[in-house]
Design goal:
Layout: E1 27-28, H1 40-49, H2 62-72, E2 79-82, H3 84-96, E3 103-106, H4 112-119, E4 124-127, E5 146-150, H5 162-170, E6 177-180, E7 201-206, E8 219-223, H6 225-238, H7 245-256, H8 258-281, E9 284-286, E10 293-298, H9 303-312, E11 315-316, E12 329-332, H10 336-350
Parallel strand pairs: 1-11, 3-4, 3-5, 5-6, 6-7
Antiparallel strand pairs: 2-8, 7-8, 9-10, 10-12
Helix pairs in contact: 1-7, 2-7, 3-4, 3-6, 8-10
The chain binds pyridoxal-5'-phosphate.
Length: about 350
């Protein structure tokens, strides 16, 4: 750190993204990307858009909001787009958390929540998951602040039902509840249909996983108009041009081919069941994942050891050095071929 770096950030530890190694080609199962590239039409639309790169992009994202509103049966005023959903989450910490409204989230969940809390000088409370890594919803009733829930949770993949989330909302009428649905389209149920029933609900989604668009950086928040207005106040105070024109064109084209995303998700869910069955045969235990990853451990090998040995053999998975889950690895579900490579290499390692 230079001597000029503001001391107000002394206590801040930045987020550590998953490895994106450029040295060789890995079977990459460590950052929950889709194995399917975008459809051809996306590339055509981006190419066409390069002709107007000399002009500013639309800060209102009118076309993009209209298109997504059609898919989710909401009003365009009930959605705001951000540069990846991480930005939407950060905006929620900025807009809805402070000393009087601390952040509340699980002890084992998305690692960015404590980072955003620290960045915004927001105190936070961590609610421990149960021994089986599930969430006891009663522990979120009458919370002391703004609740953040990843559903399905990361890195466990375990999902709450919409009924359970409704109970959390009903028992927090004076608290905002942010539901981070990065993985919802791989088998869980979205809270988007409830945004007008609960004026304290914000749903965050991303194009990074289900929509094969991690490199395009596109996310969004869905909520009642009043809350979206608040998030826009933050957005217009940071970067009104947060969605560049190429991403906007690609995002619209991606939404116009929603069927392809749904078909890909079906394949991922089949490959998930396949991988779970194969790993069970090898003695692994897994949480019940509704996401495009599984969370696995085995008595036969430690979590870090498996991660390192697989990396040696060209397969990247994610090991998180958090004490409570050190035996586990988070493994992205990719193509059938990628999963067969993973299983073959694990067999070699276990001997
Ligand atoms: C991947 C992920 C996100 C967001 O990713 P972006 O690429 O910034 O949209 C948000 N929450 C969780 C739990 C995630 O796993």
């Amino acid at each position: 750190m230079s001597r000029f770096f503001s001391s107000k950030y002394d206590a801040m530890t930045p987020y550590t993204p998953g490895e994106q190694p450029q040295d060789k080609v890995y079977t990459k199962l460590n950052t929950n990307e889709s194995p399917f590239p975008p459809v051809e039409e996306v590339m055509d639309d981006v190419r066409a858009k390069t002709r107007s790169l000399h002009l500013y992009c639309d800060p209102n994202c009118v076309e993009l909001r209209k298109t997504i509103a059609g898919i989710y049966n909401i009003s365009p005023d009930e959605v705001v787009f951000t540069n990846g959903s991480d930005d939407a989450l950060n905006f929620c910490f900025m807009a809805f958390c402070d000393e009087k409204h601390p952040a509340v989230f699980a002890d084992i969940t998305y690692g960015f929540y404590p980072v955003f809390a620290n960045l915004n000088f927001v105190p936070y409370t961590e609610i421990p998951l149960e021994d089986d890594l599930t969430i006891d919803i009663a522990k979120y009733f009458h919370a002391n602040g703004t609740i953040f829930i990843a559903n399905p949770n990361a890195p466990t993949g375990i999902a709450l039902t919409t009924d359970q989330i409704e109970q959390i909302l009903q028992n927090n009428p004076d608290n905002i509840v942010v539901v981070d649905e990065a993985y919802v389209d791989f088998g869980a149920d979205s809270m988007i249909p409830f945004i007008n029933k609960y004026n304290n609900l914000i749903v965050i989604q991303t194009f990074s996983k289900f929509r094969s668009f991690a490199g395009g950086r596109l996310g969004y928040a869905v909520a009642c108009k009043e809350l979206i207005n608040d998030l826009n106040t933050i957005r217009y105070s940071t970067n009104p041009y947060n969605i560049n024109s190429l991403t906007m064109a690609a995002g619209i084209a991606t939404l116009e081919h929603n069927d392809a995303c749904i078909a890909h998700s079906k394949v991922i869910q089949e490959n998930r069941a396949y991988t779970v069955a194969k790993l069970k045969e090898l003695g692994f235990e897994m949480t019940e994942s509704k996401a495009n990853f599984i969370f696995a451990r085995s008595d036969r090998i430690g979590g870090e050891e498996l991660y390192l040995k697989l990396k040696d053999k060209g397969v990247l998975i994610r090991h998180l050095s958090v004490e409570r889950i050190r035996d586990y690895n988070r493994i992205t579900i990719g193509s059938r071929e990628q999963m067969d490579t993973l299983i073959e290499k694990i067999k070699e390692i276990l001997g």
